[in-house]
Amino acid sequence: MDYIFTIPGSGSIKNQFNLIALLAKFVFFLIVILVLCHEITYAHSVKEPHNEREHFFRENKGQWEDHILFRADFGTNILFVEKTGITWLQQHPDDLAERASCKFDPKCSFWDFPVRHFAFKKKFKGGNADPSFVGKNESREYFNYFRGNDPEKWASEVREYQKVVLKNVYEGIDYQIYVKNGVLKYDFIVAPGIAPSVIQLEYHGLLEIEEVYENLKLITGINDIFEQQPYSFQTIDKTEVYVPSRFKIQDSIVSFEFPTGYDSDHPLIVDPVLIFSTYSGSFGDNWGTTATPGLNGELFAGGIIFEPGYPTTTGAFQSSLQAESFLNFVHTDMAITQFSADGTERIYSTYIGGDRTEIPISLIVNSRGELVIFGISTSQNYPTTATSFQNSYRGGEPLPRGNTNEISVNGSDLVVTVLNQAGSNLIGSTYVSGSNNDGINAVDFQLARNYGDQFRGEVVVDQNDNIYVATTTTSNDFPTTANAYQTNFGGGAFDGVVFSLNRNCSALRFSTYLGGSNSDVAYSIKLDSENNLIIGGGTRSQNFPTTAGVLNTNYQGGVTDGFISKLNSNASELISSTFYGTNDYDQVYFVEVDLMDRIYIFGQTRGRLTPTDGVYFNQGGRQFISRLSNDLSELEFQTIFGSGRGDIDISPTALMVDNCNRIYISGWGGRVNREFVPNSSTVGLSVTPDAFQQTTDGNDFYFLVLEEDATDLIYATYFGGIASIDGRGAEHVDGGTSRFSRDGTIYQAVCAGCGGINSFPTTAGVVSPNNLSGNCNLGAVKYDFELDEIIARADVTPDIGCAPFTVDFRNFSTGTIDFLWDFNDGDSSNLRSPTHTFEEEGIYEVKLLALSRNNCLEPDSIIITVEVLAPTESLIDTFEICDGSPVDLSAQLDEADAEYQWSTGETTQSITVIDAGTYIAITRFENCIYRDTFTVINSTPTVTIRDSIACDQSFLDLNLDPRAEDIRWNTGSTELSIIADEPGNYQVEYTIGGCSFFDRAFITFPISPEVRLLGDSLACEGEEIVLNVIETKGITIEEYTWSTGEAGNAITISKSGTYSVVGLSDEGCDDKSEIEVFFIPQLPPIPEFLDTLICADGSLVVDLSIFDTFADIEWNDGSTQPLRIFEEGGEYPFVIENICERLEGEVVLDKSPFEFGELPMYFPNAFSPNQDGINDIFKPEFPDELEILSYKLQVFDRWGNKVFESELTEFGWDGVFDGQTMDPAVFVWIAEIEFFVCEEPQKKLLEGDITILK
């Protein structure tokens, strides 16, 4: 299996936000379409987050208002380029994020959250009303717009550009706007001789314009914008010359000044930089619904977009996203994108819609490569073609948004649209509807049992490109044809409908209801080999039409039953029809037909379906896959799968049966579906060992492949990212159909990354790498199981060698598990990757045949050549070393291309060794192996006699190598060892192996000297000690060597340490003496302890431990402890003394009358300012001992007015405010006081009440 690619965010719809990340094994792609805006980090630059994105400015070819030239989207900011200036539209990111959060909370609706907006304009005051303009650096991709039913307003092949230039906005002055290094910039280019003073930028709608440090601040109330001080320059003689410049602001008009002037003979460039302020983030909502393959493996994806449009007013306003009040501001259109087969290229993107809501439900590509779109519209001006079957909107009743996945539906019609191959024109487009709602299963929630079930249905085409649709309607006047099987509405909330259009949607070929007296929905349609229509769906009608002899003619019970119906090719006859299910909830969501016209179904049940014999199943599963005979009379197999929790796990999204009758399904489950299925989760579903994704967070897609007849599980995997705890990032789909191609590749639409999560698995190299949406993106997955084609691939390495030659064949074949190997030596194997030994020399043509088990696929074969050479011979040799010299060893085969490997690790033909042992050389040449063995014997003596001085000894043992033989000493001995007890020469001859040796030694027995070190071992730091050495035995000393490196019989030292000396006699014997010397270090200064103030409840810790090691400590009270704690004030003298020095010190301790944290002050609560000299002033009282560092007293009346303030403690309030004595009342006072009571300052904020009395 291969992983093609994934792209979240097609980026083709509106702002092209795509998320791509490498996944290494499988073949698929994901596209996520972000509609509203890009996420931009606004700090000190307008950074556009996509490094890959180069084109920002999309041209207007009629899809927007005429005065708009280009549009560019930057996060929550949208910029419109016009001939006379620029218009900005801002959306508040916090409001968008709050609205987006409701996708995961069924108790709230994002429609209830208004969004704050702000718009302002920058006009070229006094400029040219009609300047020419041009876009620079055009994009390869293009966009199509089919909005409304006026073809004059449609736009095709709309391009994007890197830069926009407005020429002569003022005479001789051009304006250009572009993005450079992720920063939005604009320039004025002033021609020689033109005065830049004519540039007048007039702003409309801003709250205020400020100049901040020579930068321009545009205050909007949502996201302030800064324009940096302009950088102006001229190019003179190919050199850029800086020109000082600055803004000039007068009311709402901004111009430029040049304080030092400039050279008017050369062009002048005025280059400000726009900077967004601190808001960051974006919100773009695009809900994915449907996907389908193209003729050559391309992927078509469809979804819904919400697009802010051009603001009609400036300043602040709100939007509720309700079509009734927001018609001119938000489009909710179909968004269709075609991607190349490998996902690296966006071929086209197209908007389709009117002024309200459109939803694509099902896509398919016809034989001409034209895309057929089936969906619903709530717009009266949906684009239709001139020859369409129905060109007018019939509408229906408004539906509550909670019934339609938060999508506003004010009545709905079915629509079918066919795009040409380029997506640039309509082959055909039509409404198909009655006078009530069509295409929405949103009234009877016993049938809409999954999130997105409201928008189901399917479109298919036949070999002549006629179009077939199965869906639902609530209209009792839905258009039917004269000979239709059922021309009247059956009853209940809605009926299924089946109809067919010709290729250009100009004629209704046939149309019929399909339903009973209660609610019925048709979800899926396929054609058999005779173009009979196979329909699947759900029903609550006990009298749903069935035929005799089928599997179940009666309603099976419970709230719903599934059904399968077979209509003839023009829907005039019900050939066969059956109920399917249990006595509980059951629905058929997809039908499929194999090459033998057998009918497969995929659906959900809450009942107990019994698997038939021989099928793969999961006990307690609540999803079913079954096959019925073409006449619906026989259940050929039935199986169930799931977690076994006893409830539904996933919502079905696709079903396919390939040419080998293998069954493919896809679905999704998890948090988003729990409003409908409380226990929905992908946890516990079976996956195979080779699954792309073995684990799940419970909110993923699930792909499964069963063997023919459902006898075995071939492959199953999860697919999805990691959702957050609050459900953001939970993968799902908002209704609609996805498809498999017959070769076993799924084309799956996904609503991915909701809540701005960036965890959905993606691949590298596709259209765009990042998902920066604040909410959902449409994701499209192309995932190739590669089970459809047999490809024989194998190799063997090495393919040449000497007999007997054993090789491991490696089989990389795909599409089958059945193989036959013919080794061309009379032997064979049916293993996938066998190991085989060729015994004889020769050339063997080995054949691998890859087979299809049931012959549904063509077999494939491959030939592999193996060459076997004659056997090799080995070399064995021996070498002896006598004198310790190295030996050269060489492998026998001397070939330039040979590979050598020695047992020593070396890889050359020859090596040099000195140690005894066995050395093996392995030589590989033309996949033959040569083995050479060398034995090296080292006879060099390991023990010899040598000249020796035996100090203080009377004899010495002389020993030879234990291997020595034929020994002859000059003493006459023939032993391995002798005793030398006299000084003199000793000689010996002997042999080891085949080697002869002669050794000699001169032996002496002298007396060793005795040396002694003399000198002091203790002194004070800064003094010196002289160390002397003497010999006590009278032996002559040839030299003394000190540990300091010095020589002689005395040295002078000044550092502590161990010192030693070695004396060597003239006969070669030595003696050593050593001494330990310590220099007492100078004592450090005594710390200052004078005038230390502590709190009344505090104490002082005095630590003299640093003196304790080298001196004695004595306090005046007789204590010798280095660590003392004093709690009483007083004087505490002490003495520190050693043999080198004496230090005296004293601790002087004062105690504060206040405790730590005490508030020694008093504020009165009343005073009578009647000038009687008694209690006339309000001020706090402080003790004399209290040191006030800072002070501020404020008094406020009951309305919060400040009536008094003082920063002097001696100045209080006399009850007077504004020259008048205040009436009796209660006032609030606040005091900020910083004071010092003890140890450290304290700062207090106090408050209280003060009452004025008469």
Report on this model:
With 1254 residues, the chain is mainly β. Among the domains are: 794-869, Immunoglobulin-like, CATH 2.60.40; 875-938, Sandwich (Immunoglobulin-like), CATH 2.60.40.10; 948-1004, no CATH class; 1011-1080, Immunoglobulin-like (Sandwich); 1089-1151; 1166-1252, Immunoglobulin-like, CATH 2.60.40. Helices cover 1% and strands 46% of the residues. The chain is built from three helices and 92 strands. It has a 16-stranded antiparallel β-sheet that branches. A six-stranded mixed β-sheet has the order 9-8-27-26-24-23, with no helix packed on it. A five-stranded mixed β-sheet has the order 54-60-59-56-57, with no helix packed on it. The longest helix has 8 residues, at 93-100. The chain starts with a strand and ends with a strand. Residues 1-51, 275-284 and 319-330 have low confidence and may be disordered.
List keywords for this structure.
1254 residues; 16-stranded antiparallel beta sheet; Immunoglobulin-like; 3 helices; disordered N terminus; mainly beta; six-stranded mixed beta sheet
Topology:
Layout: E1 2-8, E2 57-59, E3 68-74, E4 77-82, E5 85-91, H1 93-100, E6 115-124, E7 132-138, E8 143-147, E9 155-158, E10 160-170, E11 173-180, E12 183-190, E13 201-204, E14 208-212, E15 215-219, E16 225-227, E17 231-236, E18 239-243, E19 246-250, E20 253-257, E21 268-271, E22 274-276, E23 286-293, E24 299-308, E25 315-319, H2 323-326, E26 330-339, E27 346-353, E28 358-365, E29 371-377, E30 398-399, E31 409-410, E32 413-419, E33 426-432, E34 458-461, E35 467-473, E36 495-501, E37 508-514, E38 520-527, E39 533-539, E40 561-567, E41 574-580, E42 586-593, E43 599-605, E44 623-628, E45 635-641, E46 651-657, E47 663-668, E48 701-706, E49 713-719, E50 739-741, E51 745-752, E52 777-784, E53 794-796, E54 800-802, E55 805-811, E56 818-822, E57 828-829, E58 835-838, E59 842-851, E60 860-869, E61 875-881, E62 887-890, E63 899-902, E64 910-913, E65 917-925, E66 928-938, E67 948-949, E68 956-959, E69 965-969, E70 977-980, E71 984-992, E72 995-1004, E73 1011-1014, E74 1018-1020, E75 1025-1031, E76 1037-1042, E77 1050-1053, E78 1057-1065, ...
